[in-house]
Design goal:
EC number: 1.11.1.6
Family: Belongs to the catalase family. HPII subfamily.
Structural class: alpha+beta
GO molecular function: catalase activity; heme binding; metal ion binding
Mean pLDDT: 93
Distance between the termini: 37 Å
GO cellular component, one term: cytosol
Low-confidence stretches: none
Helix content: 25-40%
Shape: globular
Largest sheet: 10 strands, antiparallel
CATH architecture of the largest domain: Beta Barrel
Enzyme class: oxidoreductase
Number of strands: 20
Number of helices: 17
Length: about 675
Amino acid sequence: MSDQNREHKNKKDAQLEKDRVEDKGKKLTTNQGLKMAEDEFSLKAGERGPTLMEDFHFREKMTHFDHERIPERIVHARGFAAHGEFELYKSMEKYTKADFLTDTSKKTPTFVRFSTVAGNRGSAETVRDARGFATKFYTEEGNYDLVGNNIPVFFIQDAIKFPDLVHALKPEPHNEMPQAASAHDTFWDFIANNQESAHMVMWAMSDRAIPRSFRMMEGFGVHTFRLVNAQDESFFVKFHWKPVLGTHSVVWDEAQKINGKDPDFHRGDLWNSIEEGDYPEYELGIQVIPEEDEFKFDFDVLDPTKLWPEEDVPVEIIGKMTLNRNVDNVFAETEQVAFHPGHVVPGIDFTNDPLLQGRLFSYTDTQLIRLGGPNFHELPINRPVCPFHNNQRDGYGRHTINKGPVSYHKNSLWDNTPETASKEEGGYEHYHEKVEGRKVRARSESFKDHFSQATLFWNSMSEPEKQHIINAFSFELGKVESESVRKQVVDMFANVSMDLAKGFADNIGLEAPSNGGSDVTKSSPALSQENTVKSPKTRKVAVIVGEGFKGNALNDIFNTFKSEGVAAEIVSNKQGKLKGEDGTEVAIDHTFQTADPVLFDAVYIAGGDLNNKSFKQSAVYYASEAFKHFKPIGGSFEGTQLLKENDFTDHKGVVVGDDASTFASDFVEAIAAHRHWSRELV
């Protein structure tokens, strides 16, 4: 840094310190100047009761936050979507009276929007971030929205803190940097001073936050909801989407390079898979806890920073969703779709999860400004498949032309139409939960354990996954300028694991505390991606081919790839067609300039003229990048020679051979494994 720049920075820091000192001691108020005694908790009927509508502070804070951006979403702005259908495997009538969860003969249309959380609409897609997984079911009883993420927990326990979280996560307001990233001071300052976030941060620093594809990503409803059956019996429930292809991720170096090579990587992957008929499939699972068992666990079932370990509360698979149609217009569908966790049908109800309670207000409030008024339900993508009738009128964007003089209830001029429906006629009634307690801004004592499940997550990871988490903390905190914030984070996560804290503390030039750690020894194998489905289907292989390749052998290998569902794409030094030594011609899909190894799941060097220096250098580059990212690498004929010359053979996941049948079978097996982590030791 030059003396001039250093002087400028010192002046800027001095001014910031002056501003900070001037702000010190100011009391938090509402926009009306009312001093507030509490800003951590929304107003509830009892510590574990529902949020009250009279909470003017919550509504003012959330309303202001909901209306901060025009017109894109404040969070989840960068999204992509597809249409599909849901089929029920077995009736859930013992738990719920929801028609689409009890009638196995029906196919329910769906619309799913996947998204990143932090970045704007123009940001890249393979950033480290949670991913939205929002599903709209167009049922015959009305629209039901399951609005979740690819992580089963969240940063905060009470919705009143959501504006604070997002303000800290978003680009810092003084310079609007960094975009779509959590590696900066304000985010980690928030984490260190709001330690309920510990569990979510563990997920965000894991491989779950850099998914390989929307098609290979779990979805979670996050909150505890309520199912109610025809006998008015109530059950607590959590919803899961399980991808049929398994749950897989990229590695961090790869993710950063993909952002530069193809910032549309995830949406392109989803679009192309549907266009090619490789329809993404997700099975719907539920975890159910009878209401009488609410207090039988070592965590509060209503705490949104806690999951229900699958080994304690098994996931019952009840149906499957298939995404089989791309959108016709991204703006009209993907951007105008309006999700809301309050869009429910009979048989699905809410609990007193304080984060969920706040979302029930916030989502509609947000749509009012983003979609220009109260009639967003009339946009084609939001319109229910069943008829809707009520006395709401006028407003921006009204499509319905209502007839007659009456727009109120009750009436005689229009024979009291529309009239309410009884429960027997399908009318929605809220579960008659008994609620009592003093009006308080408080949190239940049962919400105060912030670290045990963060440790559970750490204990559940494989050794490579643990190292990736340490690396992620090291990268993120390495971008934090404040040593105080870095030290606070180290001290915080020493409560999760001393191995974790020591692992990244040393990398950022700090020492972990001498004592700490956790006595939690429990683990949950379901949380590790090492235990997911391993399949070669839809995996993309870059097949490196040069002039003079062995045509018959390549055709045999391609036939095996096709039979196993592997997508092979030919990459060479120029566009057009290539001719093999036996006269076989193949069409080139990509050139070395238009594609990159980070955009493929595996690399196969099929052969060609190694005297062509440019071709040889590019082939070695593809192999090197694939090796560094632990991907399967294959070689035949000249490809075998090239891999041996560069010391790639004799490593896990590197397959060579000239017998087409044997090679193809072995290479497909290596592709199914996805990554070969033993190379991390090389």
